[in-house]
Every structure is written in C-alpha cells, then in structure tokens.
Amino acid sequence: MSKTILSVRNLNKVYQDDKSVILENVNLDVEEREFLTILGPSGCGKTTLLRCIAGFEDYTGTVTTDGKVTKDPDVDRFMVFQDFNQLFPWKTVKKNIQYPLRIQGLKDKDELERIANETIASVGLKGYENYYPYQLSGGMKQRVAIAKALALKSKIILMDEPFAALDAMTRTRLQKELLNISKKTDCTFMFVTHNIQEAIILGTRILVFGDGGKILVDEKNPLAKPVSPSSEGYGEFWDRLHSALYQSDN
Amino acid sequence: MSKTILSVRNLNKVYQDDKSVILENVNLDVEEREFLTILGPSGCGKTTLLRCIAGFEDYTGTVTTDGKVTKDPDVDRFMVFQDFNQLFPWKTVKKNIQYPLRIQGLKDKDELERIANETIASVGLKGYENYYPYQLSGGMKQRVAIAKALALKSKIILMDEPFAALDAMTRTRLQKELLNISKKTDCTFMFVTHNIQEAIILGTRILVFGDGGKILVDEKNPLAKPVSPSSEGYGEFWDRLHSALYQSDN
Amino acid sequence: MMNRKKALIAKALFLLAFVIIWEIVAKRNVFGSNSQIVFPTIETIAKAFVRNFKVGYAGISLWKYILNSMELLLIGLFLGIFLAFVFSAISMINPTFYEIYNMLVSICDLLPGVALLPVVIIIFGIHRSVIVFLVIHSVIWPMSRNLLDGFHSFPQIYIEAGMNIGLRGKSLLTGVYLPATTAYILSGLKVGWARAWRGLLSAEMIFGIASSPGIGLFINQMRTNLNNAEVYATLIVIIIIGVIVQYGIIDTIEKHTIKKWGMSK
Amino acid sequence: MMNRKKALIAKALFLLAFVIIWEIVAKRNVFGSNSQIVFPTIETIAKAFVRNFKVGYAGISLWKYILNSMELLLIGLFLGIFLAFVFSAISMINPTFYEIYNMLVSICDLLPGVALLPVVIIIFGIHRSVIVFLVIHSVIWPMSRNLLDGFHSFPQIYIEAGMNIGLRGKSLLTGVYLPATTAYILSGLKVGWARAWRGLLSAEMIFGIASSPGIGLFINQMRTNLNNAEVYATLIVIIIIGVIVQYGIIDTIEKHTIKKWGMSK
Amino acid sequence: NEAKEETAEETKTETKKIAIAYQYGLAYAPVIIVKEKGLMEEAYKNLTGNELQVEWVQMSSGADINNGIASGEIDAGFMGIGPAMTGISKGLNYKVFTNISGQEHGMMSNDAAIASLGDLVGTENQIALVNIGSIQHIILAKALAENGYDAHALDANIVAMKHPDGMASLESGAVKCHLTSSPYIFYEHDNANLYEIKEVHEAWGQDKSFIVGIASTELNSDAELYQALCDSFVAAIDLINNNVNEAAALTCDFNGNTAEVEADYLQRGVYSTETNGLFEMLQFMQDNDFCDKNITSYSELVFDNVKGN
Ligand SMILES: Nc1ncnc2c1ncn2[C@@H]1O[C@H](COP(=O)(O)OP(=O)(O)OP(=O)(O)O)[C@@H](O)[C@H]1O
Ligand SMILES: Nc1ncnc2c1ncn2[C@@H]1O[C@H](COP(=O)(O)OP(=O)(O)OP(=O)(O)O)[C@@H](O)[C@H]1O
Ligand SMILES: [Mg+2]
Ligand SMILES: [Mg+2]
C-alpha cells in the first residue's frame, strides 16, 4: 500500500466576518501519487479547501503533509490559483517560471533554460518567453501558471480550475501532458474542475463536493488510463457523478 | 430582413510594443437580436476583438453600432470581462448591479430593488446581496458580472467566457436564463466560449476564429432552439465546428 | 494580524521605555552637567504641561494659541486637499493639464515656504491668509503626488468597467478613480496632515498677526526664553492631537473603506 | 496618452506664460513702487543667476555651496530611504514592530526639525551630521508612510503566489513586496526627494557650519541682504536639479518598471 | 439702507490703519510697551481726534520685515541695525525714525585657555553665533579689526545657530565659544564655568545702537501719523528709563521673566531714541563687505527728527 502524503482531519472553516460555515468537519486522506479530481457546485468551498491545505487560510482542524502538521504555506504544496492575476506582472513568462526554481536553489543556467523552454513548449507558449503577463490572453496566463507548477514539481500540486479558460484542443493537450507528468513523477495532484469528463480522464480518484464542503462522492476511478468517452463504463460513471452533482443542489 | 446593429470593417489590431498582428482585416456584420457565439483557440484574439468593439483598444478600421461609428466605450455595448476582478470591490453585490442602472438614470427605488433581486436570483446568488466581491468565490463573481449585464440590457452585450468558472449545473441554468432573455429582449449578444456545445445551444450564429483573428467558420445555427445534444443534426454540426477548431492549429 | 489589546500593550510599553530612557538621560546628566536644559526631567515637563495651559505665554493660555492655529490649520488642510483633488482630477480628464500639473507639483514641492513669504505677503497682504497659504503650500503638493500616482496605478479594469456602464469624465472620477485609489488617498491624508502641522508651525514661526497668535509663535518664544520643558510639553499636545486624528479618524475611515472592501490587509 | 512632443510644448508654453506674467508684474510695478525687490525683472534674475556662480557669496561660488549641500542631501536622502525601507520591511515581518513603527511614523512626522535641533546637537555635537540627521528626519517618515501603506494594499494574491514558491521573510520582501509596491515606492521617492530638499534648506537655515557652507546658508544670506533676485536664481537652480532628477531619473525608472510591466498607465 | 452704508463707510475712513512689523525680545521692550499700552493709538487720538488701528505683525527676522516693506504692506518696523542699513542701502524707501536700544554683547568660552581673540585665530575652535552676516558676526569682525586681525579671520570658525541653541551647545561643550547678546549673555555671565573674551564686548557695548525703528517715507509724509509714532516711542522709552518697574511689569511675560529679573535686565540695556555709532557701524560694514557701498552720510540713514550719530 502506498503511503498517505496528505491528511486532513476535522477541518472547519468559517470566514471571520461571516457566521456561515464554509467547510464543516472535512476529513480526507490522499495517498502519494494519487490524482484527486474535485467536482462541486460554484461556491461550495473547493477553492477554500485548497487554500486551507495550501496554508493561506486560518482554520480549525489539522492538515498533515508527509507526516508533518502544516499550517503555513510552503513549496511542498504548490497552488495554481483560479485567478488570472497570479503571475508576477514584473517578470516575463520565462522569469515567472524560472524564479521558483531559483528560489529552490537551482543555480545552473543551462538547466534553468532547459526546464523553462520545455515547460513553455509543453503548454504551447513557444515564442512568448519574453512577454510580460499583461501582454497575454486569459488562457495564456493560466497556461504559464500551469507551466510554473510543472516546472517546480512540488510534492503536492493543488490546481484550481486551471483549464477553465482554455479551448477544447489546448485543454486536451494539457490533460495529456498532465497525465504524462503524473505518471513520470512522484507528484500528488488535487485538481478542481467543473468538467465531469475532465475529472474522469485525469483522476485516479474523484471527489464530489456538496454545499458546506460535504463530500458526496469519494471514489477510486474504476476506468483504466487512458480514459476516453468510449471507454467501457465511462457513461455509467459519468451519470453517477452527474447525478451526485445535481442532487447536491435541490 | 432585420437590421444590422453592429458592423466591423477592415479592423486591424497590433499592440504597440509588438510587431505581430493580432487581428488582420476583420469584417463582420451582426444583425439585431442575433446571438453570436465565438469559438477559437486560446490567444487567437477573441478578447481583443470584443475589446475593440467595446472601445477599449485603439485599432484601424471602423466599428459601426446602430448606424453610428463608435470609437469609445459606451453603454450601448456592455462587456462582461474574462477577468475575475471586474466588479467594483467597494460595492456590494447588489450595489454593483444597481449602480449601472442608476447611472443610466433609473431613480425609482422599488424598481431598482426589484431588478436587483430578480437578476441576483436568476444567477443563483440569493442571500449574497450584501457580500463584497472579495467574499465571493470565482464563479460567484462571474455570475454577478453576468447579472449586471442582464439587468442593464444594453443593445449589444459582449460576453467573454462568462461561464468558464461555473459548474455544469449552474452553467446549464444560466444558459437557459440567457436564452430566455435573448428571446424576450432586443439585445444582441456576442458570446465567447470554449465549449462547442454551449456555442451550439446558445448561438443563432456561430463563428470560429483561427490564429490572427481569421474567421474560419461563420454560419447560422441550423438547429432550432431549444437545442440539446440529442437534437437532430447536432452531432454533425458539432463535428464540423470541432474539426474547424482543430484544423486552425495543425 | 495582531489583536487590538496586544497591539495597545506593545505601543504602551514602547512609550514607557522611551520615557524611562529620557528620564535616565535627564536625571543622570548623561550629556554633560547642563544638559537638563535640553533634557528636562519628566516631572519638569509635566509641570510645564500644566503651566502651558494655566499660565501660557504673554498672559494667554496655550488653549488660545491652539485654537487660533487649529482654525488656520484646518482651513489650509481642507483647501489644500480640496485643491489637490480638483487639480489631480482635471489632470485625469485632460492630458495637457496633467503634463503641466505634474511638472508643477514636482517643482513647487521643492520650494521652501520661507522663500515664498515676500511674494505671498505682497499678494495676500498682511492677513492670516498668509499662514493659510503656507499651510496649503505644504499640503497640496505631496497630496497631489499621491493622487496623481494613485490614479495611474490601480487596475485598469476598473476604469474599463466604469466606462462600460457609461461613466465619463466627472462621473468616472467619483465613480471609479476615487474609490479605487482610496488607499492612496488615505496614505496621502496621513502625510498631508503631518505636512499641514509642520507647515503651520514653520509659517507661524516666521509670520504672525499679533491679534491671533498661534502655536508656532508659542513654541518659538518658549525656545527663545529657554523654556525647553514648555516646548516639549507643547509638542506632546501636538502629538496627542495628531494621534487622535490618526487613530480616531483616519483609522476609522480605513476600517469602513479599504479594510471593509478587502482592498487592504 | 499624449505624445512626448506635444507634452513638451504644453509645458514650455506654460512656463513661458508664467515668465511673461512675472515680467509684467515686475516691469509695471503692479504691487507698488518698491515691488521690484520682491518681483525683480527677468533680466535682473538672469544676471543674478550668472553672478551667483561667478561671484557667489563671501568669495565662494554657488557651485561650492551646491556641492556642499548635495553631499549632505544625498547622504541624508539615501540613509532616509534606506532606513525607511528597513523599518517598513521589519514591520511587514513582525506585527508588533509594525504597530510601534506605524505609531512612531505618525508621531515623528509631526515634529518640526527646529524643535529637535537642541537634542540633535547634544547627541551628534557640532557636526555636519546634524544636517544629515534633519534631512533624514524629513525624508524617513513620509517615505515610510508610503511604504507601510503600499505594503498593505497591493493584491494579496502576489503574496500568496510568493509564499507558494517558498518565499519567506526577507526573500518575500525583496521578491514580492518591493516589486509589487514599485508604484508606491516611486511616488514616495518623488515626495521624499522634495522633502529632502526642503528639509536640507530649512536645516541649513537654522544650523550652519561656516567651514562647509551650504545652499540654505546661501539663500539665507541673499535674503538677509535683500538680494531677492539671487534668491530666485538659486531657487531656479534647485528647480533645475529637481526637474533633472524627476524627468531624468525617476521617470526613466518608471518607464523601465511599472510602465513596462503594465502596472501603470 | 444705502444711506446707512454710506455713514458706515464714512466712519470707517476716519479710522486710519497701519501695519507695523516687530520681533520679540528684551531689546524690543519699548515696542512691546507701545503695543500693549496702545500708546500710538492714544498719541494719534490726542493729535487728530481720530482713531488709529494698528495691525501688529510678528516676523522672525529683519530680512522678512524688509521684504514686507518692499511689498508695500508694512509701514513701519523694528530690527537690528544690520538689516536696517541693508534695506536703506538697497533703496527701500524707509529711514530710521527712532533708536530703540543698545544691548550688551559678549563672547563666552568654556575653555579657560581661551582668553582672547588671539587664542582663536588660526585654530579650528568653533564659535556659535546666531547667523553669518548677523550683527553678532559683524561685532566679531569689528573686534578682530580693532585688535589688529583681519576682520574675517574667524569666519570659518562660525557655527550658525539660534541663541538658546548656542548657549546649550556652549554649556554642553559642543562648541568652544558663543557670541551672544542680552539676555543670554547675562545667563552665561552667571555661569562660573564660562570665561569672557573681553575684546568683543569692548568693540560694541550696550551704549551703542543695536535695535532701531524704521518707517516708510510715506508714513513720514503723513505728519500727524508720523508724529504719533515718534511720540509713542519717546513715551515708551521714557517709561523704561523713569519707571522701570512699571515697564518691566508690562514686558516680563513676553520675555518669560519675573518682573524683578525683567527690571534688572532692562536696566542693563540702554534704551534711548538717540542713535549712537550707527554711521560708524555702517562704514565698518561697507569697508568689510558686509553690505553694498553707497551711503555716504548719516542723514541718509535717519529722518530729520532723529538725533545722534
Ligand atoms: N473572504 C471571504 N469572506 C467571506 N466569505 C467568503 C470569502 N471567500 C469566500 N467566501 C465564501 O466561501 C464560499 C466558498 O467559496 P469558494 O471560493 O471556496 O468556492 P468554490 O467552490 O471555489 O466556488 P467556484 O467554483 O465558484 O470557484 C462562498 O460561499 C463564498 O461566498
Ligand atoms: N497588451 C498586450 N500587448 C501585447 N500583446 C497582447 C496584449 N494583450 C494581448 N496580447 C496578445 O494578443 C493575442 C490575443 O489575445 P486575446 O486576449 O485576444 O486572446 P483570446 O482569444 O481572448 O485568448 P483566451 O481564450 O486565452 O482568452 C495574444 O497572443 C496576446 O499575447
Ligand atoms: Mg473557486
Ligand atoms: Mg480571452
């Protein structure tokens, strides 16, 4: 059995100025190299959960990463935000990608060059190396953020709807890229998406959240990779997730 | 024949500090009450086109709205941005929606109340009237921006991937809402999306952009509303758009 | 963020430490045998504090000086802020005006009030407005600088969202520019308030109408008459007023604007 | 945005208009028969300008005074900015320090340099560092105010993105806080630069070491000798230096930072 | 209604208004007496039967007052002889209408080894005085010249700071010497640790003019007003000379002294309407580059009524 890399215990989250509980008693264990995809209605607390795990929010309960209780942000949990403005506007695309690596102690110029070029190419942004973020389209910015995560290869990568701003083709390409990387590295992923198909294609395990951060579905993905809509059992699984999602509302 | 409300002639767009041409000689006529959906790969210039029409960018060529050449932004063309930060952070959800109406001269308190409540409900944000934008999730912010557009009912509504941050269910609900409104009012829509299905469900006419703002497909939607994936001809149309999109890359 | 109580204790402890060090320096004559002229003991200062209000200078209590000054200070401060707003606003609407005003701000902020005094007197005559003018001179330029730079550096999307709904010129200013730059404006207010005080004090030290003597004259005379304890006591009054404005007024505004809007941590 | 040439013409025209009005006021004796002392003609000022450098005061050319002052000014300015950075930075890392420093900035910014002079002299002795200290005093507080407020009001997401990649404390400051607040910092620099000049001039007017006389002393002497034309000519020199710094240095920095990054219009 | 306004205006025109600039301090005691007792208003009423309204303006230096006069906003003022002569030589249309006072000046040292100017010349010992080009600086130059040194021999030793700061600096040892005037020189005399360098006091004693009153030629041409101005100062100076206690009671508050101390200090100064050494000082200034060279006679400095030299 592989080891538990992330464990969330009795996590409760209430925003200070507000009485209503966003996350109520969330418990979750994620194993190393798992690819967890998270579905859930808008406003149910997906972002909030990722932010708690990443250490950006105060909460009650504990988050344990690789055996250590973690309260504050650190590189072992890297987050790709939902917001388009997560790139440093004062750095070019390439510098935005290289900077985290340099912070982590990678000094070798050639290596930095290589990694940057590789990841930039993998998100389809060749030629945009020296653009500043304000010169990019929405989807391009998000792709740079994804490239940052791919270059950094943190233990846990938290992705908050990273593909939402992408067209179908780019999306499919990046899904494949991500699948490849998740196979080749030891990274563990938590990936929020609104696309059920995407959740099935990428996830080794799928979570559906309801309002108040209730976990409605928590299942291993029964389909073998690579999944396509024509895979056996796809339709049935899709329906199950779909109805769980719909149900969560009423 | 219904009248042309928007006409784009020989529009060229180059960003100052950059030599590469983003939009090259774009020509487009949009008829009143048309619902134009726009597909295209990330970074191809969809946002740029909407921004030119809205009057936020310098360009060569002309944009004519309702017979008048328009260079500067005005309420006759309302834009829902791709960016999550388009709401005024210093106004609550309700105020963000009512403010444009008050600017347009609507003074009647009850009417303002009614419109705000109605549109807030229609985007599923009942109970969040007095939240400030920073207290909302990504999808909720976008829904408020949509509500603003619905409340304002400008002649032309430009929507830049407004549903990208929404879950399937909310998305379906808002698609229905939007269809309803487009039937009831005289508004003309230009709606950017990455979702081919969405483009078919919503659009009365569908555009596919290639790189450099080339229009690869410009067709009336052959399917009668309401469209569902099981509508006759849906699959074929979907395939056509899909291959046009893919082809644009190669 | 710290809780309020802990913050209060930290500040109180710091002030206490300062007072204790001062007292040691004063009592031990650390800086030479006569240093009590410069470092009077706390007790002396406390007595001077009382004496300032009871006896005052030239038979007039410090209250009266403060009142005289506060009137001019507030007029100058408000006019300075108001004019800074007006000119910075026009600058946003008219690019030519912006170029000129931006240059003017950079130039005028360099000019010492003393050097302007003759020109001011010749234009305004012998009048309290001379002081008001000098206060305005010390407020308007730094305030305008904050406004001009603030107006240029908040997210462009708010302007677009504003133009989107038909805001233009004046309505765009009040509807977008001002709320979007609240942080800059408040920062400017804090600096402007301090500037106004220092402008007032130095103006009153070089010019004053005898019939309405101000706090600058008071300090000047106390210095001249070697009453340093009284000078420090007067500075303490100024500090108290300043702190009340900072924590009572500006902080409250912050709490009800940028803090509430999530625009400041 | 206007193009550079048009902007330049607008500014030149404005200055020309000012000069013409001045000249009319001067030549026509608009403000009374003796007003040429307060409003000397342009020609007189131009001659005074030349004389300042050729003859100067006490046998020393204005150059020398400027050089003496510039040295103190730059030392004071850099130290003031540096200290403002250090303290504001510590404030971001340590909330207790923030509370205390924030209070200190609000208080100290109110204190006139004159009132501090005795304390400064007793601590530093008779030394040019007294002037440097007074320059620092006029720079550090407004600069810190800009930094403290700037640090609190840029988008939180940059901090989170920074912590995300392992930036902490010092590295977070240099990696995120500083670049993210560049607009505030540059705005602070402009104000700080003007403050430094005014601080220097007023410091040199109340405290001067004859063996290294500065521009404040020069102005003071010219004032005392009723050589207003020389005073204005000296102010023009100050303005020229100021404008060179504003348009030559700070604007260039702006162009290569916030303008290039799309963080300012 | 109109008629009412007119009469109001008429009564207004009868009230004459003038603006007088002054400075504070022991040396200006007669000014304070005139101001506090309303002597000038009284004198004007006696002469003409009309009201006089005096706007008293406090300014911090002779230079400011000179500019005020140049602007036409100030009609009369009080300042040291240095700025007064600078103003006249610059062609400002005013002259001295009365002498006010002479005060004690002296240079004190905190180092017993410094007993005369000769011990300072050629050293780097610092001398605090109120400003470069100030009357104290000129007195230092005069003392140097009278003792055979170059008048500017100690210029580089000067540190400019206000009297109280200079005194604190001297007492704390931050400077070696302090050249100051009353009342600070009195305090320093009382300090047993300080030593006087006598040449300075000898060069310009309290018998010599120090502070003068100046009036614009315009004011001078209004005979009654000018008379009232002069009369009021005669009266004020008489009061100091004949009834020092009453005078001290009036001025002590302003100078921060008790009445007894104030009376003592007033007696140590010389308050007189007659100038002494004014022209001598001017010549010294002209000869030693302290002001422009263009005045050749005493009568260019003072109005006809002023006696002295
Ligand atoms: N700073 C805040 N203060 C108060 N409430 C907040 C704050 N931030 C978020 N919330 C609330 O928390 C809830 C969950 O927000 P969250 O961003 O986690 O949703 P989400 O699941 O990511 O939604 P989406 O798919 O729309 O991004 C929302 O109801 C929102 O109103
Ligand atoms: N300010 C700018 N300066 C230079 N280039 C820019 C600027 N803004 C956008 N671009 C370029 O214009 C092109 C089109 O951008 P646009 O935002 O219109 O794309 P888009 O079709 O909306 O893409 P997406 O689906 O990713 O939002 C991109 O290649 C981008 O790099
Ligand atoms: Mg979210
Ligand atoms: Mg886009």
Brief characterization of the structure:
The complex is a heteropentamer, with 2 copies of chain A (250 residues), 2 copies of chain C (265 residues) and 1 copy of chain E (309 residues). Chain A has 7 helices and 10 strands.
As a percent range, the share of helical residues of chain E equals 40-55%
With helices defined by DSSP (H or I, 4 residues minimum), what is the helix count of chain A? 7
Which ligands occur here?
Answer: adenosine-5'-triphosphate, magnesium ion
Any idea what the CATH superfamily of chain A is called? P-loop containing nucleotide triphosphate hydrolases
Helix fraction bin of chain A: 25-40%
What is the number of helical segments of chain E per DSSP (H or I, 4+ residues)?
Answer: 14
Strand order of the largest sheet of chain E: 2-1-3-10-4-11
CATH topology annotation of chain A? Rossmann fold
Look at the helices and sheets of chain A and give the structural class.
alpha/beta
Rounded to an integer, what's the Rg of chain E over CA atoms?
A: 21 Å
CATH class of chain A: Alpha Beta
State the total count of DSSP E strands of chain A.
10
Structurally, the number of domains of chain A stands at 1
Largest interface: C-D, 66 and 66 residues
What labels would you give this structure?
heteropentamer; C: 265 residues; mainly alpha; MetI-like fold; 2 domains; 11 helices; globular; E: 309 residues; alpha/beta; six-stranded mixed beta sheet; five-stranded mixed beta sheet; 14 helices; 46% helix; 18% strand; disordered N terminus; binds adenosine-5'-triphosphate; binds magnesium ion
Protein described:
The complex is a heteropentamer, with two copies of chain A (250 residues), two copies of chain C (265 residues) and one copy of chain E (309 residues). Chain A has helices at 46-54, 93-103, 109-122, 138-152, 168-184, 196-202, 234-247; strands at 4-14, 21-31, 35-39, 60-65, 68-69, 77-80, 156-160, 188-192, 205-209, 215-220. Chain A is α/β, with parallel strands linked by helices. Chain A has one domain (4-248): Rossmann fold. In chain A, the strands form two sheets. Chain A has a six-stranded mixed sheet with strand order 6-7-8-3-9-10, with helices on both faces. A four-stranded antiparallel sheet of chain A has the order 2-1-4-5, with helices on one face. The mean pLDDT of chain A is 90. By secondary structure, chain C is mostly helical. Chain C has two domains: 1-39, no CATH class; 54-255, MetI-like fold, CATH 1.10.3720.10. Chain C is built from eleven helices and one strand, in the order αααααααααβαα. Chain C has helices at 4-28, 42-54, 62-93, 95-108, 113-124, 129-153, 156-164, 169-180, 182-206, 215-224, 228-256, and one strand at 207-209. In chain C, α7 (156-164) packs antiparallel against α8 (169-180). The longest helix of chain C has 32 residues, at 62-93. Chain C is globular. Chain E is α/β, with parallel strands linked by helices and 309 residues long. Helices cover 46% and strands 18% of the residues of chain E. Chain E has helices at residues 2-14, 29-37, 39-48, 62-70, 81-89, 135-146, 163-172, 184-190, 198-203, 217-221, 223-242, 244-255, 259-268, 278-287; strands at 16-22, 52-59, 76-80, 94-102, 105-109, 127-129, 158-160, 177-181, 195-197, 211-216, 270-271. In chain E, the strands form two sheets. A six-stranded mixed sheet of chain E has the order 2-1-3-10-4-11, sandwiched between helices. The model of chain E is unreliable at 1-10 (pLDDT under 50). At the C-D interface, α1, α4, α5, α6 and α9 of C face α1, α4, α5, α6 and α9 of D. β1 (208-209) of chain D pairs antiparallel with β7 of chain E, so a sheet runs across the interface. The structure holds adenosine-5'-triphosphate (2 copies) and magnesium ion (2 copies). The site of one magnesium ion has 4 residues of chain B, from α1. Residues 46-47, 82, 160 of chain B line the site of one magnesium ion (MG).
